[in-house]
Structure formats: C-alpha cells, structure tokens
C-alpha cells in the first residue's frame, strides 16, 4: 500500500487547483501571522517550523475562506486545538498547571487573543515540546472542520532511495481503504484483494486471505471498523511492523505473520492511470484517478477499441478511484450526454455554481455500465451521481465512499506548508447531498473473499451481462 505516492499526488492536485494570479514576492508569501492567506503559485520552498503565528494565519484563513467560515462557530476550532495540546502533554507525561482553556465569548479576534496567550503560556513551560505541541494544535484545528477535503499538508517524508516506481508499505491492498474506514464505507470481513509485493508477497499472502486481527485487535467489532485498520497504511518514518492473524478459507488454515513496511518495486502496468482492453464486443476501461488529461485518454482508448468493429457498450471501471480533477470528471461525462448539469457547487447561503457538460466533446452513443465500490471518492462520485441522476447508464458494485465535500482550494502558509479546504460544497445533478452518504449502486455486487481467492470479478461479469441483454 502506498501512502507516500498518495500524499505527493494530493499535493500536486492542490497546486494544480490553485489560482493563476501573479506570484507574490517572497516577503509577501512569508507574510506575518494573521494576514490573508493566498494560493501557492509554485511548489513551496523548504518547510520551516510551525509556530503559533502560523496557527493564527491558518485560523483566520479558514474563517475567511472556508465553505462555512462566515457562519462557523470559531470556538469549536479553538477548543479542539487546545484539547489536542493537553492530550499531547498527557502523552508525554508533561502536563502543566498553566494549560487552562480560556473562556471564549464568540468574538473571533478576542477569542484568538485569549487562546494565543494561553497557548504561549503553556508551551513556554515545556520549550522542548513547543514544536510538537504547535503541530498537533494546527492539525486538530483543521480536523475540527469535519471536512474530508480539508487538510494541512506538511512534513511529507520519503524513505531513502525512494523513486516513482516504488511502493511503500506492507505490500497488499485490502477491501477497506484506511482513510475511508468508517461505518458508511467499510463492511466486514477485512480481506486481501491484491498482493503487490514486498513483505506481503514474501510472507505468501494471497487474495482472499481474511485478516482476523491486526496487532492483536479485531478490525471490526459488531460490524463497525476499528482504528486497528489504520496500521495497514503505514507512514514513513513512523511505520512499525504489523502483526496479522490470517484465515485462508479455501484450506481452513490459520496463521500469524509479521510484516515490516518498506519499499518494494511495483508492476509498471498497475501504475497506469488508464488501462483498457476489449472484452468480446465491449470496451473495458479502468480509470484509477482523475488526473490531468485522463478524460481524453479514456476516450482515445475507447476509440482505439472501436476501430474496425461495432461495440455493444462501455464498462468504465472506477473501483478504487480516489478522485482528482472535477474538470476531468465533467469532460468524461460529456462523452455520454450534452446540455446537462453534472453537479452543483454551492456556498453556505445556497448560491450555487453549475458544472455543465462540455458539448464540444463528441458523443460516444454507446450503452454504459460503471463499476463502483466503497473506495470510489470525490470526482469519482461526481461521475457516479451524474450517471445515475441523468440516466446515462447503470452502476454496478457497492455504494461509493461519500467523500465529496467539495473541490479543495490550497493556500500557502508562512512556514511553506499547504492548507487546503473547499470554498463550496458539492451537490449532485438533482441537488442531492452525496458527501458522507455516497452514491447507491443500481446492482449490488460486492467482492467476497471467495471471489478474490478464485480470481473472479462478479461485478464485471454482471456489467457484461447487462450490456448483452
């Protein structure tokens, strides 16, 4: 499983989404705390330590630019930040009498001044922990938004000798995506879907192996996923070995393995964003992310498969697609319909911008089936909801992730880190809320451990059946 590549790709998308205003002078980019934040115009320079001044800049950046910043009760952010500070003190066994949350009144500026004074008074007592305490404070402040497209990107480390073809982790994919392992998107049991290499391959893991425990803890309790699942998605350099208790249902064997995260080479074919093949008279195209020009690449692949033959339809496989550019999502949809709204992007007071089809894109005029799963998120859900609402085709698989709060805008903070969050929230073509809920499938065809072990793809089989009716 590769976390570093995901982090790097996410940062690239944040930078690509930034506005194209003239680049500010360096002195402006490293502006004083509390000043207006601005989109980055180039990759940031070397990161410096987060200070309380940077937290202040982030606080006012959120209040001035976030989707609900104008109506947000800023006290919730400050309370979350101070809670994180005290929890970190407790973890280090260094709690201090000065760590007292001040009374807040709802006056954003006055509340910040009180919070800052208390934060400085606390961290002055433990100067060796100041940097760590400031980091957890800012992380908690952003997390308090409860927004799946809000994040603070900082301190992204790569292991030594990392190169673009490497994977990093324990070497397999599971049916539960770590960052999306909540009650909406995760269903028991937890099992291996793909072995990519590294420790998992060396230990002999196979698709279909059921993971009964992780470091001694159950991955699900009463059907609800537990924090133990996060250990499958290690981040360098904090990664530690992961102990798994496994069941191979085909033989009944139970055994325990310890997997040490590390680098491993990946099959170059699996790194391609667009993969395609002909399945009898059906064009099958798998799209793993809405990266720049991905829509054109999908359409070119279908055109090549269509040359010299008559196609009965298209299977667009979006399983595991974590999203990307909403522009690419709209462009891909435009090959199946013209003159329609594919989504709305709305402010907190209900003013909405529309994402309309690009009617310069040539229509394919082919039946469509889209494969979705609980790792289909963001721009992937933009496409899925439009296919459903506009009746462009049929959805096969399971409900999507419900991770589509809105397109994130990125902002450069004074210590050369990136803060990102949506200014508008996403609604489907029928103005329905998709975030946290997901897009329901038309045909429920989940992958089971038995299917994975046998190399079967029941969702694809169902799609082909629908296109040949």
TrEMBL record:
Keyword check for Signal: yes
Signal sequence bounds = 1-21
Classify the source by domain of life: Bacteria
Matching entries from InterPro entries are given as: ClpP/crotonase-like_dom_sf, PDZ, PDZ_sf, Tail-specific_protease
Q: Which UniProt keywords apply?
A: Signal
Residues in PDZ domain copies: 165-232
GO annotation, cellular component aspect: outer membrane-bounded periplasmic space
Q: GO:BP terms for this protein?
A: proteolysis; signal transduction
The UniProt GO MF terms for this protein read: endopeptidase activity; serine-type peptidase activity
Q: In its UniProt entry, what is this protein called?
A: PDZ domain-containing protein
State the organism of origin.
Answer: Acrocarpospora pleiomorpha
């Amino acid at each position: 499983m590769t976390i570093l590549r995901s982090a790097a790709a996410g940062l690239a998308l944040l930078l690509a989404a930034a506005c194209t205003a003239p680049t500010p002078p360096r002195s402006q980019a490293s502006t004083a705390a509390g000043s207006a934040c601005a989109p980055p115009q180039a990759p940031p320079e070397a990161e410096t330590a987060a200070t309380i001044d940077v937290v202040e800049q982030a606080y006012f950046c959120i209040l001035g630019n976030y989707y609900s910043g104008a109506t947000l009760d800023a006290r919730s952010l400050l309370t979350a930040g101070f809670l994180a500070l005290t929890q970190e003190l407790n973890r280090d066994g260094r709690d201090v009498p000065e760590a007292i949350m001040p009374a807040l009144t709802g006056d954003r500026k006055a509340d910040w001044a009180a919070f800052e004074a208390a934060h400085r008074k606390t961290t002055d007592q433990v100067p060796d922990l100041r940097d760590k305490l400031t980091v957890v404070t800012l992380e908690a402040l952003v997390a308090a938004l409860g927004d799946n497209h809000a994040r603070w990107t900082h301190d992204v480390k790569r292991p030594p000798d990392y190169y673009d073809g490497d994977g990093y982790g324990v070497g397999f994919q599971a049916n539960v995506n770590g960052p999306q392992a909540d009650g909406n998107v995760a269903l028991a049991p937890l099992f291996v879907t793909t072995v990519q290499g590294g420790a998992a391959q060396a230990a002999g893991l196979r698709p279909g192996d059921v993971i009964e425990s992780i470091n001694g803890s159950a991955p699900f309790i009463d059907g609800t996923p537990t924090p133990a699942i996060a250990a499958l998605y290690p981040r360098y350099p904090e990664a530690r070995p992961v102990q798994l208790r496994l069941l191979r249902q085909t033989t009944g064997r139970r055994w325990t393995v310890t997997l040490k995260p590390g680098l491993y080479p990946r099959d170059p074919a699996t790194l391609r964003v667009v993969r395609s093949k002909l399945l009898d008279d059906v064009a099958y195209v798998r799209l793993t992310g809405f990266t720049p020009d991905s829509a054109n690449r999908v359409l070119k692949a279908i055109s090549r498969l269509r040359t010299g033959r008559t196609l009965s339809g298209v299977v667009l496989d979006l399983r595991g697609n974590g999203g990307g550019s909403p522009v690419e999502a709209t462009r891909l949809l435009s090959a199946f319909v013209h003159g329609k709204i594919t989504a709305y992007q709305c402010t907190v007071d209900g003013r909405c911008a529309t994402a309309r089809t690009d009617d310069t894109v040539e229509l394919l005029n082919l039946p469509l089936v889209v494969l979705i799963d609980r790792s289909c998120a963001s721009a992937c859900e933009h496409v899925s909801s439009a296919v459903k609402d506009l009746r462009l085709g049929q959805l096969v698989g399971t409900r999507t992730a419900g991770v589509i709060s809105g397109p994130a805008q990125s902002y450069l903070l004074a210590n050369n880190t990136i803060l990102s969050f949506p200014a508008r929230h996403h609604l489907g073509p029928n103005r329905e809320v998709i975030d946290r809920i997901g897009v329901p499938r038309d045909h429920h065809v989940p992958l089971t451990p038995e299917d994975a072990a046998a190399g079967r793809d029941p969702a694809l089989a169902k799609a082909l059946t629908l296109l040949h009716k």
